[in-house]
Amino acid sequence: MLIALAILSSNTFCQEKSRAGWLDLLSTRRVELGYEAVSVIYADSLNAFPDSAHIEGTIVGITSVPAPCGVFCWWGTALIHLDKRPGSLFGDSIYIAVMCLYGKEMDFVARHVSATVVKLFERDLFRSCNAIFNKFDSRGIPFYKLTDNSQSPFDLR
User: What is the pTM of this model?
Assistant: First the structure.
């Protein structure tokens, strides 16, 4: 009985050791974002927020993507303090997802924004551009995105 237990323990230890060795071969890197990531709230067809709105306000903060888009594509986010509410359901601020939002936060903060936005649905993300970097807790309020024909206030060129 004792011999069977020793053989069984030895076999389990060897399996764990070989699995750990296999994991060590994988190259892994920890990416320090400098903030705590927060999930984005997507719109759904049942919520009461307007489908689109024209907004005017000031950028309070952004979540930049880690590198310029090219081979890879990501979404960043922006928090905008509204000059006036475009509808009764909006608060003082709106959260916007912006494709390829890359740069230093200080380059964007205090810039004025005048743009048309639409609700961000999960289906708006596509295979080559499906990650969103976000540090803002919208407290259940859905994120919006710029319309395709809206001139981006986030373009630093």
Answer: 0.73
